[in-house]
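dumping the sequnces here before i forget
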Amino acid sequence: MVKRNISTLHDVARIAGVSPGTVSRAITRPQLVAPKTLEKILGIIKKLHYFPDPAGRNLRSSKPTVVGAVIPKAGISTFAQTIADLNDALEAKNITLIVSQPEFSSAASELAAYRLLERGADALILLGDDHRPELFEMLDHRALPYLLLWTTKKLKDQPYVSVDQIKAGQLAANHLLELGHQNFAYVGIPLLHNPRAAARLAGVKKQLNQAGILLAPNAIIEAAHRFSSGRDAVERILNNYPATTAIICTSDYHALGVLRGLYEIGKRVPEDISLVSFNNNDFSAYTTPAITSVDLKQHDVGIHAADLIIKLMHGEQVKSIQIQPQLCVRESSAQIKKSAKKIML
Amino acid sequence: MVKRNISTLHDVARIAGVSPGTVSRAITRPQLVAPKTLEKILGIIKKLHYFPDPAGRNLRSSKPTVVGAVIPKAGISTFAQTIADLNDALEAKNITLIVSQPEFSSAASELAAYRLLERGADALILLGDDHRPELFEMLDHRALPYLLLWTTKKLKDQPYVSVDQIKAGQLAANHLLELGHQNFAYVGIPLLHNPRAAARLAGVKKQLNQAGILLAPNAIIEAAHRFSSGRDAVERILNNYPATTAIICTSDYHALGVLRGLYEIGKRVPEDISLVSFNNNDFSAYTTPAITSVDLKQHDVGIHAADLIIKLMHGEQVKSIQIQPQLCVRESSAQIKKSAKKIML
DNA sequence: CTGAAAGCGCTTACAG
DNA sequence: CTGAAAGCGCTTACAG
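..and the predicted 3d for all of it:
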């Protein structure tokens, strides 16, 4: 271990010829200190490069200063933008964010939550709503505020910031229906462990069903959340269901892979096949063709989450937020060709 | 503020009928405690959901547990992957990473560094080598270990994990030279504030000069680090320097934009123009055409950084690491066409 | 193997 | 406006 050589509040007090209490007040509530004393103390603080040891401070004051976030890995850094936004917004309020990104499993998440608390988290941000009740009992018992992100169930008693995933699915499907498509395939993250992706698919099905269209089970391809899985899915789609004229991808990562796969076998997008996806990643407007995508508003999630968790830490009541997704139409989706329609009929 | 309701070490001791010291030992050095006592204590700890308050623990033991990282924003989340890798590797050693992403300026970085220390950082990771000496004096004075990431100067006394950016530039230029190109343009991040991008460009120029080729000043386009800037640069390139057959982009973000820009004006890649870039982002292998890119090994940087900062926190000597970049040839670069050669002669 | 005691660096009523 | 004192929750020699 490295030996430290740090001046303490007592050092400052000794040199300034005042009591430690006065130095403490000079830092935390300067209006309580006489201007001349204050000036002298601040000068010494500056000269010594002194600042309060957070351990001592926390022990005494118990103001919440640390938010822990459990954000499981989802194959690709899906949530990087939200984490960055959250970090920025919390830092602006002098709150520290500590993040744990365990593998995707509820046991690993729960362990990660405990570890964050042991490392000093005063509040917790958790992904999804698939947690054991014991975890919430413990949080309640310790009166630890927490916030759920990207939940898919309607929660009554637990504060959350979520995106209407069903609506997102409906927007995607509706867009393609309006363009005249009737033969759909779907490429998605394995649904079992991802209620958000499952909800998007549910929205897609719902909208298709309203139009009297059934999404055939073998037209649903589950694939790991990687570009390569998207590419590899293309062959299976066209084998399983050659009439496909529209593909819906559960994320832009899949979509870029699918785009690549279609290019490799010589299918043109959108002339032969239309493609719609979710997330509206930063790259989606610049691929060729640019990807039509439903924006899931990651940025807004981060901003609202910071806002709500801070309020919760201050003991305030809070209203959960359901964010509305937004369709961004680009080049990968187009009116179905008459020839394709004929083949189908 | 929320009121807490947490059992302390004293509560555990009281219920177990032992002294607080014994409970502390049961947690930190169980081999010093009699098995029967230990069992009883651990049972109560479990029942009470007790875990030690890190504030109390830190105050007393002064073992380093928190690493702070100052990673300025670079337009896009360039460093997200490295931060995630670093976080994972540190978490595995029970070290907490706290990150600050200030705007790109050395004053903002220095302030961020101080803020991280005030929030409990026991060691610091800093980006680049453009820091005021006062910062290092302060760190030395407090015996705080620190590590520099992505430096471009050769440092003797300061530990760093860096990538050989000049070499990266040379690899890119050399690849295109071998393909017969002689008329180059460059699209890059504004060089003034980005020594890494500047070093890559220096490598490019060096390699070109060895081949007797001069990169014309108006063939160097500086652009903000966004996809759109890459796209917008295309027009300027072809206006400034119509003979261009090869474009080097300082990042894959620019490259995707440039690809898009070239597509929009009807230039084919690589038939008309070859494109080489840096970073080897995850999407680069899946665009159409796939982007030839020099891998800057972000993942390795994160892993090595975690390793070194942990050693430094334990007071160990450490050898700085210079990572070698690696060229990944894909579809965006090709042998120059004879016709293009003729035009140039 | 265990307990009593001191103390880590701070903050905060309390008294003056 | 300031000081003396208590104490936040823990760990760690020290003594037994």
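Residues 18-22, 25, 32-34, 37, 56, 58-62 of chain A lie near DNA strand D (CB under 10 Å from a C1').
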